[in-house]
Amino acid sequence: MIKYLIFDFDGVIVDSEILAAKAFNKILNEININEYSPELIASKYAGNKTIKVASELAKIHNIPDYNIIYNKVMRTVGSLYDKDLKEVERIRSFLEINDLELFIGSNSGKQRIIKGLLKVGLSKYFNEKNIYSFEMVKNPKPSPDIYLKIIEDNKLNSKEVIVLEDSVLGVKSAIDANLKVIGVTAASHWTNRSPQILIDAGSYQTINTYLDLIKILKKL
Question: What is the end-to-end Cα distance of the chain in Å, rounded?
Fold first, then answer.
């Protein structure tokens, strides 16, 4: 019987991966790197920490200091979040009828998660003590550290847990923690993309709407 749900944050609770991708697209275009659409960036780098993406792109394009990208992207992302951040479609409907205990395990910072939940009006569904961020563990995803910490701190039975992830990186993190994962493709960065990569990474199933999650949980 499933008693606990652990949500990733970006792309699972808030529809933010596409906003980060748009910020990278804008900044790269400003320095005459025009080969990355927001959709390509989202499909390639969703789930990664912003600083890692900036570092990888700097290496690819022989930019000596990744901060040239990172600092501008962070400012742009902040502006987009304040203006355009929304919840993932249908998640509110699910949360309103949910009776399981909820956790968040994310590569984002805890204060950013709390701010995001407040922004979209979902903070009442998540207890602050159940929000886990990369600052709380030694290694971020794809390491399993954050999921192992949630299990250990709260003395959860792994067989009673479902993880909700939207990226291959996140799915691998949860699988390596020996947890069952459902892939979520409900956010904007999954438009016109196949969910098969999440199945291939180890997801038990995938959903493109939270209405499907209700049906799946009833069978588990």
Answer: 6
